[in-house]
Each structure stands twice: as structure tokens, then as C-alpha cells.
Amino acid sequence: MAQRAADPAVELSRRAIVGLSGFPPRWLGWKQYRALGAAALDLCAVACGTLDGYVDCSRDAHGVWDYLGGALVCQEAGAVVADAFSRQLVLRSVTEKRTPVAAATPPLLQELMAARSTFDS
Fold first, then answer.
1. Which candidate in 3, 70, 93, 106 could, as Cys together with 40 as Cys, close a disulfide (CB 3.0–4.6 Å)?
2. What is the pLDDT of residue 34?
């Protein structure tokens, strides 16, 4: 059961533990980060409460097979997932790539999306 996904106390990125794909050009405000290496697993870690959020620091690095299963697990657990550039995550094309961002709560997602929007890599 995803206990932390519904926890309203995890809303400020300064207290959050965030999973990364790629590395940001500067610190984006979270307490700690982890680079685990697989987008779907990172998203599942958000869903189960191991991570508070996930940020893809690369632009368009992930195909649907990289993140969509984990995004479904997040959705079912009550966590939220979006593309860093506000595009649709569910695609039929195998050539299009996306930049997923996930969080345990909508306010944390907004903070992570705002932080991610400050650089374009």
C-alpha cells in the first residue's frame, strides 16, 4: 500500500527524497537524491513511498516502454506523473520520447515541474 503517496506532509521539495535520471546542471532544492537507473523502477519507488518524487533531467530520453508501466503503478497508488514539457505521456509512436516527472502529491509535482522547467537539457 502506498502510504507516502497520500501523505500531505511530503509537499515541500526541500524535505523530499527525489530519484533522478540524468543529472541537473545545479541543485534544484530537494533534501536528497538517488540515481537508480531505470525510469519504471524509479516511478514504482514513488508509488510505494520509497521516493517522494522523480525527475528526468534529460530531454526526451525515454520511450513509452521506459516509463509507462511505472506511471500506471503511480496512478493506481495515488501518485501523480506528468511530462516535464506538458505533453501527453501515453503514446502510440515508438519514435517519440518523453521526459517524465512524478511525485507523491500534486503540490510536490508542481514544485518539481517548476524546478525542471528552469533548465533545458
1. 70
2. 79
pLDDT score at 51:
93
Q: Indicate the DSSP class of residue 43.
A: H
Considering the entire predicted model, what is its pTM?
0.85
In 3-state terms, what secondary structure has residue 111? helix
Amino acid letter at 113?
A: M
**Pairing status of strand 80-83 against strand 100-103:** antiparallel
Q: Give every CB contact of residue 91 below 8 A, 6+ residues apart in sequence.
A: 64, 98
d(CA 89, CA 53): 17
Type of residue at 104: A
Q: Is 3 helix (H, G, I), strand (E, B) or coil?
A: coil
